[in-house]
Known about the structure:
Layout: E1 2-7, H1 10-20, E2 27-32, E3 43-45, H2 53-62, E4 67-70, H3 73-77, H4 80-86, E5 91-92, H5 100-103, H6 105-115, E6 122-125, H7 128-136, E7 143-147, E8 156-159, H8 162-175, E9 179-183, E10 188-196, E11 201-203, E12 208-209, E13 212-214, E14 218-221, E15 226-229, H9 236-256, E16 263-271, E17 277-283, H10 290-294, H11 302-311, E18 325-332, E19 345-346, E20 356-360, E21 363-366, E22 369-372, E23 376-384, H12 387-398
Parallel strand pairs: 1-2, 1-4, 2-3, 4-5
Antiparallel strand pairs: 6-9, 7-8, 7-9, 10-11, 10-16, 12-15, 13-14, 15-18, 16-17, 18-23, 19-22, 20-23, 21-22
Amino acid sequence: MKVLVIGAGGREHCLVWKLGQSPLIEQIFCIPGNGGTARAAKTQNIALDPLNFEALAMFAQMEYLNWTFVGPEQPLAQGIVDYFLAMGMAIIGPTQEGAQIESSKAWAKALMAQAKIPTAQAQVFTELAMAKAQLEHRALWPVVVKADGLALGKGVVIAPDLVSAHAALVQCFALSEQVIIEDFLVGEELSVLALTDGRVIVPLLAAQDHKTIGEGDTGPNTGGMGAFAPVPLATESVMQRVYDQVLVPTLKALQARGIDYRGILYAGLMIDREGQPWVVEFNCRLGDPETQAILPLLATDFAEICQALIDQTLEDIPLTWHAGSSVCVVAVAEGYPGSYPSGDEITGIDRIDGGIQVFQAGTRLDGDMVRTAGGRVLGITGVGNNLREALHLSYTALEKIHFSGMYYRRDIGFRIK
């Protein structure tokens, strides 16, 4: 098979790395790719705009590609799947209507209400003054303020008081025409990424992300500073509740709306003290950096899974997993998630081996040199017999890598260390 992966992050580097292991895969194209995908097995970067659907479809036709896998949310939200399907080409991801489960938090909240999916109480506002007025009478703090649209993980603010909530409203209205104010959920976060072919839905191994920039889960939100899998919190009982109360009802609600949703449904959850899952958010694609922690443990051929998503034969593909634990620690540029420099030389990647994968995200090749080209630069994934061993591998590898201003959290997995 010849296939296309769309995207330029650590998730996409992990995807081409995993697909490259499959005997079914002959060649992988990555658009636009990064410094890591440029050197990945069987992979060639193509310098096209991932939002230029006409050019992408023309390329896919010229190369007689078997299918396309969409990594990031923006092409999905803008309708790349609809475009490819209209051209008669196989592609993995939800249609534009289905992608609203991530691109519009208000739409997702309405869907959850319809399906009676456990989630925080929320109100949607289109005017700043009305949102501020609602907060004046609020008794329970903190409160969560969310921009409605895509915000790359940065459109969510947990406000502890009225002053900070007002500031959050201004920030979120600058990002979106609609803002959601919702109750703060108490518990422990869990990421459940599930595969669906539109007929059945199958969860992958659960992971736990670390979204804030600072250690101890402090500071502003980011796209993700690290993740590990499996998670002790994800007991058989908890995962059964997630399946019965979240995944299946969501798929049925999408079906009831006539949406043929195929690809990934990512449920960002809060698990309370009783083991009850509450949906914080949905995403319509693989998580980043959760993918970099989950896929290294997957034993089933990922290319075979992708074909099953297209053929709607997912129920015939048993998922099997390697024993042990996986940890991905993200190294970011100085200043992230705010403004950050670009073009700094990265050294030490070639010194990494032995149970470690360096998944490149915000990088580019400059001849034989790898340079920074984004906020989240690298994801260092260690796989060991247990979490402690995987953490040791990741952090030992990070000590060998350098770029100017490099920062990473040193407490990934701190809740269960």
